[in-house]
Give the backbone structure.
Amino acid sequence: MTEEQKQASTEEAEQRFLIQRIYIKDVSFESPNTPAVYAEEWNPETNLQMNTEVTPAGENYYEVVLQLTVTVNSNDKVAFLVEVSQAGVFEITGYGQDEMNHLLSAYCPSVLFPYAREAVANLVSKGSFPEMHLSPINFDALYAQRLEEASQQQTPETSEA
């Protein structure tokens, strides 16, 4: 083995990604127009807003919070509003900056999303509304899209004179 191969295998052996905790950080369910909304014809219009936050939580530990806000209107009235902040603490070591950004911005939210989706579904059900199942989200594609947008903003545009 060459010295470079030994160093590369040592670096790979030092890479760690561990889920330490997964928890609900904040949750809210509002149904401002009940009980009248139950008597009306159900014409749902769903709006999903999503955000992630990353906070260092000690050496090699990071808290990632996936925030989902689901607003459902029916007949131009808010039927319900659900806000879930699903969080996790992840231990991550031995990765380069690009890999670390990808893990924190795409991989960790993809780990958290099924938990957040379940919380939303449970809250909607407890609010006595029809079942709601959020579609899967490709966080890798969203991350790639953000990188592309950032690179386009950094590239100066030339204009014709």
The chain is about 40% helix and 35% strand.
